[in-house]
């Protein structure tokens, strides 16, 4: 996990699915951080016992949802949603991460995204410039 964060980590809690600068993927548009991978890392951290770190990443990711409370497939370092919107597998990974946090006795995790989605929660900075 540390190697993934070191080599594929983006701004804040974002994670790329591969090194966009070291890979010729043939795409004409820039590759953003892959949000499913970002939420999957949260789950991996929980399962490895790094729950506080996982919750911090989860909060930062939830704070970056769009105005409708939804996520796209990818996100640029500037916070722009890229790719398919909304993207189902991103939301499935979000739900899995929330359930894993809940199972680690962080019951608040199930409500974090909901508060951001409906505007009741505090805005969480995503460490963007």
UniProtKB/TrEMBL annotation:
Chain coiled-coil ranges: none
Q: Which SUPFAM superfamilies match?
A: Six-hairpin glycosidases (SSF48208)
Question: Which organism's genome codes for this protein?
Answer: Nocardiopsis kunsanensis
GO BP field: carbohydrate metabolic process
Task: State the InterPro entries in the record.
Answer: 6-hairpin_glycosidase_sf, 6hp_glycosidase-like_sf, GH15-like
Q: Where is the GH15-like domain?
A: 50-98
Q: What superkingdom does the record give?
A: Bacteria
Please give the name of this protein: GH15-like domain-containing protein
């Amino acid at each position: 996990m540390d190697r993934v964060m070191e080599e594929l980590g983006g701004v804040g809690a974002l994670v790329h699915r591969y090194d966009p600068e070291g890979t010729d993927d043939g795409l004409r548009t820039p590759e953003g951080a892959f949000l499913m991978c970002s939420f999957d890392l949260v789950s991996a951290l929980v399962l490895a016992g790094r729950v506080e770190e996982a919750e911090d990443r989860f909060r930062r990711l939830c704070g970056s949802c769009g105005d409708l409370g939804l996520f796209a497939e990818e996100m640029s370092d500037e916070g722009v949603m890229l790719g398919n919107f909304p993207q189902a597998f991103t939301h499935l990974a979000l739900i899995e991460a929330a359930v894993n946090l809940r199972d680690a006795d962080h019951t608040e995790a199930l409500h974090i995204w909901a508060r951001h989605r409906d505007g009741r929660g505090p805005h969480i900075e995503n460490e963007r410039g």
